[in-house]
Inverse folding.
């Protein structure tokens, strides 16, 4: 139900109660909100209402990225909890715990003197400190924040969801706070999802009760996608997912594999440059058009951990020019990431872990279910999309997929509180065989054995394919080596013949050039003698000068005919001789013949290499298809690790006492038989409906009473 009050128009009852609590002066408030319950809208209203009452509000978050998101959504300055308590003198010591500096103490980080908090970090009496995403707040940071707030007379409001991702360190802060304060509001009216039925289902998923029924509803809504193997799943997601979609993986390794496949697909579509690239911290190349994530807060660069960027340009030095994505700003922010930062603290981000998508809202989301994901990861991944949230599972059939889903929701590491944990433990002990962990182990044994067999078979397939490609490469190399050696020998022969010819021609050019220079010098001397001769010797000097000039002209003609130029001077003679010798050497028959032989040998070698490349590509396509070698290597590694893990699992199961193991095996058999009967009944129902639809119309309507509601037109 939506209401209109001082807290704004269009708030539902949960939002109004939460906004009232946050805007109040109560010292400690806890607001729990399911994914999509409109916590941001509620906070905007609460901040405005508190301001009307003369109280200021400060919003902080457990991470810098969450602070940036909150700032964009709320339109106010925000910061991380760590930044606020740091400003008030808290520092991590070498043992990993908070210590407190007092004004005047030396700062061990930079040697400066602690002066207390700067103006913007100073807290006012009665100021409300709102911790958004408080489920991820660790105990140490919470204690430091409470101490700072208590000293200033400020109040605390924790806003989060215990069903979502917990703190990286010691968590449970929301649970402790809910036990300490009477002001606790749970927001369960959802606004994010376009499908009301799915919105209701997410509340069931949030609590994680009766996971088998939740799976059946997801399947009925068409949100379960099954695949025979990881490769098919990765290819489907890479082809179907949009750049704006949220793709959630359980681990960084799973995200890396998905990122590699998605990037390859985008390269094929011409959306990413794969020519000018650098390598990120995940070992994958990054080029213009790629979407990346920064993984370390760096104030000098203006980047935060888990912030997402699109690469615009790759610099010659490996630096990246990137623009922030999904920040809601009209003017997108552009920064330059140095090469060292990229190598150590940036990687592809088409797919990320649940910690990377928590807090995001998109139109469509994809979550990859594996043995590494837990209940909180499934809940976060499956609540990011407004319109669709699909769960992708590698399974032999729907029953196998359901069991994997049930197992995942049993791995619940969310901070639901001490009472919830106690109740779950009591149920597990009371129903050790029927509903406890041992039943899950037993139910999955056959599936694990089958998976080991499939993994070994697939791994052998890829190993055989790799061996065939390796054998072909060695054979090709053995065939190509003699041709390469012949081509290199021919090139060496050309160089040797050319050197001999150039040396001989150089000596000839030097002799011819010297003759020309001598004739020219004689002609010059004769002309000067003629000019200075007396009247009685003028005729003889003129005759001598004409003869000398004729000899110079004849010598120049001979030199030009042979070398196409003449030297300018004695000092220019060596360089001129070498130059003309090099030019004329190319026309000497011995050089021409040697070059022709070398060209032929190189052509033969080139044709052999081209043929081998065609043969290699043909074999590659037959045994690997369009898969990249790196993807195959990653797949083989994953198969090997998964099989080893599964074998260790079976060893543990076989170590159980026989009576317990037998009970578990019988339980699994009974469950499988029940599922088979249900599936058989469902199949018969489908066949009956199909048969009815295929029947002639008059037969389908034969048993119906006549229609008497009105005239038939």
């Amino acid at each position: 139900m939506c209401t209109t009050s001082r807290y704004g128009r269009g708030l539902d009852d949960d939002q109004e109660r939460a906004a009232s609590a946050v805007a109040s002066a109560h010292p400690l408030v806890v607001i729990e909100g399911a994914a999509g319950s409109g916590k941001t809208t509620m906070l905007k209203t609460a901040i405005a209402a508190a301001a009307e009452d003369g109280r200021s509000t400060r919003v902080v978050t457990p991470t810098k990225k969450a602070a940036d998101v909150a700032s964009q959504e709320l339109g106010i300055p925000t910061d991380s909890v760590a930044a606020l308590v740091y400003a008030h003198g808290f520092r991590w010591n070498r043992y990993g715990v908070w210590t407190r500096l007092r004004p005047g103490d030396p700062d061990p980080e930079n040697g400066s003197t602690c002066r207390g908090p700067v103006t913007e970090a100073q807290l006012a009496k009665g100021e409300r400190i709102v911790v958004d995403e408080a489920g991820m707040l660790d105990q140490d940071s919470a204690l430091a924040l409470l101490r700072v707030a208590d000293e200033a007379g400020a109040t605390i409001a924790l806003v989060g969801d215990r069903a979502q991702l917990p703190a990286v360190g010691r968590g449970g802060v929301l649970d402790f706070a809910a036990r300490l304060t009477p002001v606790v509001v749970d927001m369960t009216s959802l606004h994010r999802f376009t499908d009301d039925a799915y919105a209701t289902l997410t509340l069931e998923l949030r609590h994680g009760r009766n996971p088998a029924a939740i799976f059946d509803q997801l399947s009925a809504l068409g949100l379960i996608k099954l695949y025979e193997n990881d490769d098919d799943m990765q290819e489907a997601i890479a082809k179907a997912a949009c750049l704006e979609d949220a793709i959630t993986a359980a681990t960084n390794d799973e995200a890396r594999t998905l990122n590699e496949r998605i990037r390859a697909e985008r390269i094929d579509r011409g959306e990413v440059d794969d020519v000018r690239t650098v390598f990120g911290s995940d070992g994958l190349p990054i080029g213009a058009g790629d979407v990346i994530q920064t993984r370390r807060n760096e104030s000098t660069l203006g980047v935060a951990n888990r912030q997402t960027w699109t690469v615009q340009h790759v610099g010659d030095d490996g630096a990246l020019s990137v623009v922030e994505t999904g920040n809601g700003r009209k003017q997108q922010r552009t920064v330059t990431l140095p090469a060292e930062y990229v190598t150590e603290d940036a990687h592809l981000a088409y797919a990320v872990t649940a910690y990377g998508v928590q807090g995001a809202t998109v139109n469509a989301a994809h979550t990859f279910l594996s043995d590494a994901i837990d209940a909180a990861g499934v809940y976060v991944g499956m609540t990011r999309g407004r319109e669709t949230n699909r769960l992708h599972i590698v399974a032999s059939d729907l029953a196998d997929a359901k069991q994997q889903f049930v197992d995942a929701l049993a791995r619940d590491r969310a901070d639901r509180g001490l009472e919830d944990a106690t109740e779950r433990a009591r149920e597990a002990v009371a129903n050790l065989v029927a509903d406890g962990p041992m039943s899950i182990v037993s139910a999955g044994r056959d599936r694990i054995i089958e998976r080991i067999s499939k993994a070994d078979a697939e791994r052998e397939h890829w190993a055989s394919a790799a061996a065939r490609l390796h054998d072909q490469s060695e054979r090709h190399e053995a065939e190509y080596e003699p041709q390469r050696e012949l081509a290199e020998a021919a090139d060496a022969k050309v160089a040797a013949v050319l050197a001999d010819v150039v040396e001989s021609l150089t000596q000839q050019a030097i002799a011819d050039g010297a003759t020309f220079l001598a004739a020219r010098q004689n002609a010059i001397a004769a002309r000067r003698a003629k000019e200075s001769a007396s009247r009685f010797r003028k005729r003889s000097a003129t005759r001598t000068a004409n003869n000398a000039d004729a000899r110079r002209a004849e010598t120049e003609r001979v030199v030009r005919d042979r070398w196409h130029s003449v030297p300018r001077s004695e000092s220019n003679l060596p360089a001129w001789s070498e130059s003309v010798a090099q030019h004329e050497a190319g026309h000497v028959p011995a050089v021409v013949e040697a070059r022709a032989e070398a060209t032929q040998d190189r052509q033969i070698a080139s044709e052999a290499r081209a043929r081998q490349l065609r043969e290699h590509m043909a074999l590659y396509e037959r045994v690997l298809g369009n898969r990249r070698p790196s993807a195959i290597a990653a797949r083989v590694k994953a198969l090997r690790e998964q099989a080893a893990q599964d074998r260790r699992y079976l060893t543990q199961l076989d170590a159980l006492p026989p009576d317990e193991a037998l009970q578990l095996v019988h339980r699994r058999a009974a469950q499988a038989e029940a599922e088979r009967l249900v599936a058989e009944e469902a199949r018969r129902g489908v066949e009956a409906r199909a048969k009815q639809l295929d029947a002639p119309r008059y037969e389908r309507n034969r048993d119906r009473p006549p229609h008497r509601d009105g005239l038939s037109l």
In short: Residues 64 and 83 are 9 Å apart (CA to CA). DSSP finds 23 helices and 22 strands in the chain. Residues 445-532 form the longest helix (88 residues).
